[in-house]
Structure formats: C-alpha cells, structure tokens
Amino acid sequence: MTPKKSLVVDCDTGIDDALALLYLLHDPDVDIRAVTTVFGNTDAATAADNTLKVLELVGRQDIPVAVGALTNWRGTFYPAPDVHGDDGMGNTSLLPAPATTPTAEPAAELIVRLARENPGELHLLATGPLTNLATALLLDPELPGLIEHVTVMGGAIHHPGNVTPAAEANIYNDPEAARLVFQAPWEVTLVPLDVTMTEVLTEELATRLREHGSPVTTFAAAILEHYLGFYERDVFGIRSAACHDPLAAAIAVGDIPVVLAPTVAIDVETGDGPARGMTVADTRGQYRNFPSQEGAHVRVVLRTEGTFPDRLTARLCEASAPVPAATGGPAC
Ligand code: RIB
Ligand code: CA
C-alpha cells in the first residue's frame, strides 16, 4: 500500500483556498495533519472559521486548525473583499457557524511541533502570505531539514502581478517573509500566476457543480458565484476565474503533470518602490533547456496542461453524492 502524503496546509481561507481544501479532503491518499491560517484574503481568525466550516461540511472536524499571523511584520495587511467577499466565502453564509474551535497553539508553533514529531514526512502547502512559514523558520532554524517539501502558490514570473503591475497577492502581502522562505535550504515548488491564470474555472463547470446538488458541490458553486463575478468584472471580461490554490494543491500531491518546471534561483523585491513583492526568477536559461544553477532549489512551474479545473469539478462531484432532492440531476 502506498503511504499517504502528509500535508500541513497554510492558507488564508478565501474561495480558492476552500476549493483547494475540498479537493485534498476528497483524496484518499492525502492525510491533512493540520490547517494553519494567516491573514490575506480575510483576517486570520475568519480564515480559521471558514476552514472549520469547510472541515465540518465533510465531517473532518478531527483535523486541527491553528490561527497564525494577523499581519505581516510591518503590521499591515490588504484583505480582498472584492475577490472573496467580506467573509472570505463570497458573502454566502451558507455553512453553519462551526461547532469546533481553533487550537490554542499558534500556527508557527504547530508547524514546528509537527515537523519535529514527524521528521522528513511533512509537505507544507502554502496558499496565502508566507508569514507563518517564515515565523516557523525563525522559531526553528533546523526546520528545512525536517520538512519533506514545500509548495507555494504565489508570485508572477513572466506574468504581470495581480495586486500591482509587478506583484502577486500572497507575496505582496509579506515580501520579507517570502524572501526568507525562498532562501531557506529546503526544496520548494512555486506555482505562480503564469500557470494559475491559464487554468480557468468556467461558468459551465460552476453549472455542473450546482446541478450536481450535493452539499459539497452546492457550496462550491455558491462561493464561485462571487469569484466568477469579480473575474468577469475586473480581469477576463467573461465568466471564468483563475484556479490558483486548487492547482497548487494538485501539484503538491503530484496529481497533474507539469509541462515546464525548471529549478532556478529566485529572490523577492523587498524595497518600497513599484516592484515591491516582485518575484525575480533567473530564467535566462530558457533557450538552453534551463541548465542547472548552483544552489538553486526552487522549482518554478511555468506551464501546465490547462485541463485541471475539469478534474477539480469531477473530483468534487464524484466524491459527494447528491442530496436526495437533487436525484435525477445531471452527473458531472
Ligand atoms: O494571488 C492569488 C492568491 O492570493 C490565492 O492564494 C488567493 O487565495 C489569494 O490568497
Ligand atoms: Ca489563498
């Protein structure tokens, strides 16, 4: 029997983080050991609340949820109610208040403790600002040697930023933390906008989820409403939305092939000019099949097949039976 992949998911649970969690929760080969939350799409406490609601929706209240950083190290954070709603869940109020509560243990301490208890086993998946991971690195400088791999959704390599012309939201929210995480001596896979903007959730997929009619797909379709509205209005001009965090989740657990993913040196701009939060990757080797770069340890995903959102939709439909009232509805 293949051993399960042990994951700690560090997220700012907004809409696409919630979809990423649902995708992973329906993978029998994945063991989510804990979810830690960080400021970002919403505040860290609301992100924890949203996470608990999602876990309870699928009966996984056994998974611990820990609250982490409330702001970056400068004391700021930029929530995204236009993208994720005031509650981070597209203003849906669909799920009941959680019966469970977050752990007393803060996120960074929990990450360090789990890494110490399970040396070499844990995969960290970060789908929000990197403040919790950076704090954990400061708490325990030996952490990189204890972690199996780190996958980060964030950055923009050859693609424009999404909060400034140069910067992607997760990195912009805490560039100093991101820099520390990319510099630490662990293996990182970075899933930037270059690929997450090419894997799009369409209105047709949202309709499939809605018509399937199970509690999980009904919830997924409901939160997608707000997200599709933002992307239609401000980004694509049509009802399609980027599949950022679910794509990073799928890549973390090796579910989808990556077409182009060189391992390159990467740095983050931390100055206060217009490039603050920019991810600067050394991709100059692109015409020579990316010859190896000494000391480089960040694998940057630059191309995927573009078919993942269909797979995400199918996974959510297959894993959750329709509620009785929806029997006879179309199968996904
Ligand atoms: O830029 C996209 C990222 O920012 C996603 O992780 C989204 O959830 C937000 O955190
Ligand atoms: Ca996120």
Overview of this structure, please?
- This protein has helices spanning 15-25, 44-57, 81-84, 107-117, 131-139, 143-146, 169-172, 175-183, 193-196, 203-212, 215-236, 244-252, 308-319; strands at residues 5-11, 30-37, 65-67, 122-126, 147-153, 188-191, 200-202, 240-242, 258-260, 263-264, 266-268, 279-281, 298-300, 303-304.
- With 332 residues, it is of the alpha/beta class.
- The chain has an eight-stranded mixed sheet, sandwiched between helices. The chain has a two-stranded antiparallel sheet with strand order 7-8. A two-stranded antiparallel ribbon has the order 9-14.
- Helix 4 crosses helix 5 (131-139).
- It is globular, with a radius of gyration of 19 Å.
- The chain binds alpha-D-ribofuranose and calcium ion.
- Residues 11-12, 14, 16-17, 40-41, 127-128, 245 line the site of calcium ion (CA).
- Calcium ion is lined by residues 11-12, 14, 16-17, 40-41, 127-128, 245.
Main pleated sheet: 8 strands, mixed
Oligomer: single chain
What is the number of helices? Answer: 13
Secondary structure class reads alpha/beta
What's the SSE pattern?
EHEHEHHEHHEHHEHEHHEHEEEEEEH
Number of strands: 14
Straight-line distance between termini? 29 Å
**Roughly what fraction of the amino acids lie in strands?**
15-25%
Let me know the average pLDDT. 95
Name the hetero compounds present.
alpha-D-ribofuranose, calcium ion
Strand order of the largest sheet: 3-2-1-4-5-6-13-10
Helix content: 25-40%
Principal-axes shape call: globular
Could you name the ranges where pLDDT drops below 50 across 5 or more consecutive residues?
325-331
Radius of gyration: 19 Å
